[in-house]
Amino acid sequence: MSPDPGQEERALVLRAQDGETAAFERLVDRHQGRLFRIAFMVVGDRQEAEDLVQETLVLAWRRLHLLEEPAAFRGWVAQICSRSATDVVRRRARRATAPAAAEDLEPALESSPDTGRTSPGAAADPARSALVNAQMSALARVLSTLDPALRLCWVLREVDGMSYREICAAVDASEPTVRGRIARARARIVDEMEEWR
Q1: Fold of the 5-196 domain
Q2: What is the pLDDT of residue 102?
Q3: Per the confidence metrics, is the pTM higher than 0.90?
């Protein structure tokens, strides 16, 4: 019988809180790919997302002693990442630059570094691959037009698979607010993706 992943992660966090760098490195290995997906889907720039993940992990290491419940590490580190990514988007908006281009968001929908996960578009069937790539491009275009708060909540739920409670903690919003943001994002996505149904 394999150990409970939640208990294993809790043990890693406790060891890391005691200063064991190898335990923190294992936590980094577990979460780096999903943190990249979160950051990339919010900011839309690969280099910026990689920098955000690096900053997130450094900050998590420095503040790990403040984490009172080791089992909450997954949501806590996602909160650090999502807040940093949202700050980048806000700074970008103040500089009046354009939102992330749809083409920039496509790689995050298909794969991420360190995970080896790829979309079904990587299949051997060229026709299917072309169709999936076109669908991913369309989805990336829709996501790039969403308000950053809606996009972040949708990404955390649909891409990262976080629970509503975890998302609430990550974005510092109430559950009705989070559910509303996700519902509005889904409605926009469904409406804009109608031709792909």
Answers
A1: Rna Polymerase Sigma Factor; Chain: A (1.10.1740)
A2: 52
A3: no
